[in-house]
Amino acid sequence: MALLVLVRHGESTANLANVFTGWLDVPLSSTGEAEAYAVADKLKDFHFDVAYTSTLIRAKRTLDIIVERAGWADLPVHHVDALKERMYGNLQGLNKAEVAIKYGQAQVDEWRRSYDVAPPNGESLKQTRARAVEFFEAEIAPQLRADKNVLIVSHGNTLRGLRMYLEHLSETQVVGLEIVTGGVHVYRFDAHLAIVEMYDL
């Protein structure tokens, strides 16, 4: 059975500062580094044939820590724009609490959690999901069908979109899906890419 593991990067300095991050290229915080090491310890007994990550440094660094800690020096690693976080447009770099004061919490919640409403000049979850799923179908699905084990390190909204697709979640269900920093979600698939096992580590 093919294995797919989805990992959200460790806490970033922008997460720590409660800032809308999106495509801002910010490093891991010290907590985020520790979370990445913890993920590596959880995955050390797994075998992967290939790994993919976002081109943003917080995801790349998380994967680097995992690979180094687990001793997977020969693991092929690919950096992919399609796995970048949702683009938050005009909100990027702004403090979430201050934005809530300016626009109201209900509007901020709609921008952050809804499926098809985008922040000003940014991406909706629907748009983020579309690019992530297109990449998955083109690059990841063929490897899983060939019984390869795949590791993906990405971002909260990108992974929400992928999980919505893989688990057939509704627009209502995905609103409540939270993925913590350093979160690990495991799938095992049969030859037809039907999920036979799914769990968090």
UniProtKB/TrEMBL annotation:
Annotated active site: 9 (tele-phosphohistidine intermediate), 85 (proton donor/acceptor)
EC number: 5.4.2.11
Residues binding substrate: 8-15, 21-22, 58, 85-88, 96, 112-113, 156-157
Gene Ontology biological process terms, A to Z: gluconeogenesis; glycolytic process
Molecular-function annotations in GO: phosphoglycerate mutase activity
Catalytic activity from the UniProt record: (2R)-2-phosphoglycerate = (2R)-3-phosphoglycerate
SUPFAM superfamilies, sorted: Phosphoglycerate mutase-like
Protein's pathway: Carbohydrate degradation; glycolysis; pyruvate from D-glyceraldehyde 3-phosphate: step 3/5
Similarity comment text for this entry: Belongs to the phosphoglycerate mutase family. BPG-dependent PGAM subfamily.
Stated name of the protein: 2,3-bisphosphoglycerate-dependent phosphoglycerate mutase
Organism this protein belongs to: Hymenobacter sedentarius
Gene that this sequence comes from: gpmA
